[in-house]
Design goal:
Elements: E1 5-7, H1 32-51, E2 53-57, H2 60-67, E3 72-76, E4 95-99, H3 103-112, E5 117-121, H4 139-151, E6 155-159, H5 172-181, E7 185-197, E8 206-218, H6 230-254
Parallel strand pairs: 2-8, 3-6, 3-7, 4-5, 4-6
Antiparallel strand pairs: 1-2, 7-8
């Protein structure tokens, strides 16, 4: 599956400019220290992007979907979210990322935009919280906004596992979005060499470090039946778990490392 590994090249046409759809989050109301923190992180990720050699594997399916103008839902583990930010520049089709309706989400939104992402604000609640989804998180609104993006033939990106966990367990939200929209889910894995594990984080976050190597590995599209019931959704969640674990392990293998999850 991952026989082809290549260095980054200009494979796709320049990204098209298209009208925004749905709720576009602007972080104008966050305090200046948080804005400053976001700016510093943006420069740091640019440094990572400029000083690391990237290798990409398994991207033929995602490239074909883009060139055909078809939608896709890109999913990754939450602990790899910062590692995946430079990926935004590689997309030809508009790519909208889901961020939480929180101050953290506001900061992440300011970081993502310079790398070519659009932003939709909202989130669900992981089962580890042992409570229902808070309506103030705008999860339902975000779901509808992402659905409209997909219906327009665009791409959306979200973490498969949902705060506060459990880690490496796909929540039902993106699977239900795939069923409703008919768009495939594309698992993606990342690895950096070197990278620093951040101890005590629920998602086992790993901070990428500059002056090294990085890999991006895409998996095969996963389609969910539109008539999937709760039992089928649960089975699909396990399928997505295995798919993300597989590409994550391959990303580590390419760099000669053991899987970190």
């Amino acid at each position: 599956m991952f026989k082809q590994v290549k260095k980054l090249t200009a494979r796709l046409p320049k990204r098209q400019r298209e009208a925004k759809i749905g709720h576009s989050f602007e972080a104008d109301d966050i305090s200046w220290p948080l804005r400053l923190f976001g700016t510093i992180l943006t420069f740091y990720i640019r440094l990572i992007e400029w000083t690391t050699q990237v290798q990409i594997a398994g991207d033929s399916a995602i490239n074909k979907l883009q060139l055909d103008g078809k939608p896709a839902i890109i999913v990754l583990w939450h602990g790899r979210n910062f590692q995946g930010i430079p990926m935004g520049r590689l997309f030809h089709r508009p790519l909208t990322a889901l961020v939480s309706r929180s101050r953290d989400g506001a900061v992440i939104g300011t970081i993502l935009k310079p790398f070519g992402f659009r932003i939709t604000q909202g989130s669900g609640t992981g089962s580890a919280a042992k409570k229902g989804t808070n309506p103030r998180k705008r999860g339902a609104q975000a779901f509808r906004a992402m659905l409209r993006h997909l219906q327009a033939g665009e791409m959306v990106l979200a973490t498969a596992d949902v705060p506060p966990g459990p880690v490496f367990k796909t929540g039902p939200g993106m699977v239900k979005l795939a069923a409703r929209s008919g768009a495939p889910m594309i698992p993606v894995g990342f690895c950096y060499k070197p990278e620093l594990p951040i101890i005590g984080t629920w998602d086992r976050l790993h901070l990428p470090l500059p002056f090294g190597q990085r890999t991006i590995v895409y998996g095969e599209p996963i389609y969910i039946a539109k008539d999937a019931d709760d039992a089928a959704i649960a089975v699909a969640q396990e399928q997505v778990d295995a798919a993300i674990d597989k590409v994550q392990a391959e990303a580590a293998r390419i760099l000669g490392k053991k899987p970190l999850n």
